[in-house]
From TrEMBL:
Coiled coil: none annotated. The chain crosses the membrane at residues 14-35, 79-98, 110-132, 183-208, 258-277. Residues 75-276 form the ABC transmembrane type-1 domain. This is Carbohydrate ABC transporter permease. PANTHER family: ABC TRANSPORTER PERMEASE PROTEIN MG189-RELATED-RELATED, POLYGALACTURONAN_RHAMNOGALACTURONAN TRANSPORT SYSTEM PERMEASE PROTEIN YTCP.
Amino acid sequence: MSFVQKKGLTVGDYVNYSLLLLVSLICIFPFFYVFSVSFTDPKVYIPLQFYVFPEKWSLASYKYILSTNSFINAMNSTIFVTVVGTALNLVFTFTMAYGLTKTGLPGRSLMLGAVVFTLVFSAGLVPSYLLVKQLGLLNSYWSLIWPGLTNAWSLIVVKSFMDSLPKELEDAARIDGCTDLGVFLRIVIPLSMPAIAAFTLFFAVAHWNTYFNALIYLSDAKKWTLQVLVKTLVIDSDSNGVGASGASEQGIVPQETIRMAAIMLSMAPILIVYPFLQKYFAQGVLLGSVKG
């Protein structure tokens, strides 16, 4: 038994644990409230009453919101942007990072300098908007994908990860007749699966939570992403985006339970996917960061 174990917990330990418990409860209780209200039977729901657990369970709010065209359109838009955007992010990030690991690449230093430069300086909102407008991407899903195909932080971390891979494997593959593309696809990519899993999560979460760009680039409400629709439903006074006001007036489903159901549906996919990728999260990112 170690000295620390013999000594036991100190007063400072109890204070720290108490503070951590308090902070945890403060963070968790809003999720409990949202969850409980979304599953509460509309017939027993009482506005402004705190619910830890639903008094009577019901899926009425979920059935209603999933039957509205606005929510289905927003869900489809978000799924498209997330799937296509994440796939393109991975392709561009890993191919460019692999190229930057080659010391003999012409202009490599200039490209690395340009990548690092963007970590400190950015064009700003107005030039970015004008660029998207000149490219004809306004009110298009591609305005949420093309401008952010990769970013400097992801490139640097992935490059560091690839620098840590054994170069002997690449040399052996070339001796066997592999081209640069063959080495990349058959050697580098399989060895980079932890990093790919981690950045899949990064990119997918970023695209799923797309809000600001969708708000300024998409003027057609039918193309809104899920986060924009949820913001309109939860914060704006006019919640007709999914017919919530009409439902409330007709006494079908309370507006508040519809809002909470929308929030739960917007969070659920990421919460479901994250546990499957969590084990790759630290391994894929920290390996490249520490060895870079």
